[in-house]
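Our consortium's second objective concerns turning raw sequence data into structural hypotheses that experimental partners can test. To show how far this objective has progressed, the report includes one record in full. It was chosen at random from the queue rather than selected for favorable results. The single chain below, 339 residues long, was entered without modification.
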Amino acid sequence: MENRLARDELSVFLESGIYRFQNSNFIFVDPVRVLNRSYSRFRVSPAGYYRRFFDHVKKGLDDKDCLLNARKRKRKEKKSRCLNEKELAADQRHQVAKPLLLMAHESLLQATDLLSVMGSLNREIDSSAGSRWVELPNDHQSLIEHGGVWQAPLYEITLKLPESSPSSEVAGSSFKNRVVPLFNNLVVNETLNEVEAQFLDHQYILPRESCFYMSDLRMVHNLIPATASSGFSFIVIDPPWENGSAQQKSKYPTLPNRYFLALPIKKLSHSKGALVALWVTNREKFHRFIDLELFPSWGVTHISTFYWLKVKADASLISDLDLFHHRPYECLLLGYCHG
C-alpha cells in the first residue's frame, strides 16, 4: 500500500513539480517543473536552471588541486565565546525551528522514490510537441543595471503578439510587434498564450495573462489601484536586505531597512484584505525590525512562518544546520493586511 502511494506521489511530482510527504506539511519543489506548467510554447531548460547546483567540480581543477584549495580554505577553530543579546535571540529562534527542519530533512531521506530522481533533475525532460527550450541568461547585463543608467527612460521592449483574438485559446500563426517603454511602465501580456519579448539582443518570455512593472522603489505608488476593490489580494516581497558579504554585495544592490517602511502595502491591498509574504534571512536584526516596525507600519499581522530548507542533488544540506552565520534555510513570513 505504501509503495503504491509513493509511486502515485512520484507521478504527481513528475507532472507538477511538487512532492508532498505523507502525514506532514512538508513539500519538495522542483522549480523547473512548476515554471513549465505555465508555458505551452516554451520550456525552461533544467540543465540551464540547475547549472551551478550540479557542477560539483570546477573545470580545469583535478582532485589534487581541489584538496589543496580545501586546505587553504580550512579555518582555524575559533575559541568559544559568550553570545551577545542578538545572537542569543537568533539562536533561540533557530532552536524553535530546528526540530521541524530535522523532521523535514528526515522525511526527504526516507522518500526513496524521490531520491531516485533528484540526481537527474538537471536532465532535459520531454517537452510538449512544438515547444522550444529556453536557456536562462547568465552572462549579460541585468535589467536592474540597465534601469540604473541615464538612458533607462529611453529603453523599449518589443512584444511579439499573436494576431488572433486575446480570448482565443489557440495562438495564431502570424504575429505583430508591439513596442512599449520598458521602465516605469506596466508591460502587459493579456493573451492566453506566452509571448516572446526582445530587449536589445536578448529574448524574454512573458507568461500568459501576466504583467510586470520595472521601476525604482520610489515609483511604487504608481501601482496603487484607483479603487481598493481593484487592489492586490496576494503580495510577495523579497527585499534586498543589507548583507555584509562582499560576494552578495557584488550580485545586487541592497537598501537600508528604513526604505522598506515606505512601501504602501495598505494602499496596495484589496478592500477585502491581502495575504503578504515576506522573504527574510536569518539575521536577528531583520526579524526584530519586522516584528517591531515593519509589519506594524504596513498594518500587517504575522500569522505563520514557512521555511525553505536548501539541499544538494544528493539530498544533503548545503551547510551544517547549526552553522551560526550560514544556516541552510531561509524564512518566508506570511502575514495578513486587513482591508
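The partners drew two points from this record. Residues 56-73 have pLDDT under 50 and may be disordered. The radius of gyration is 23 Å. Both points have been shared with the crystallography group to help prioritize constructs.
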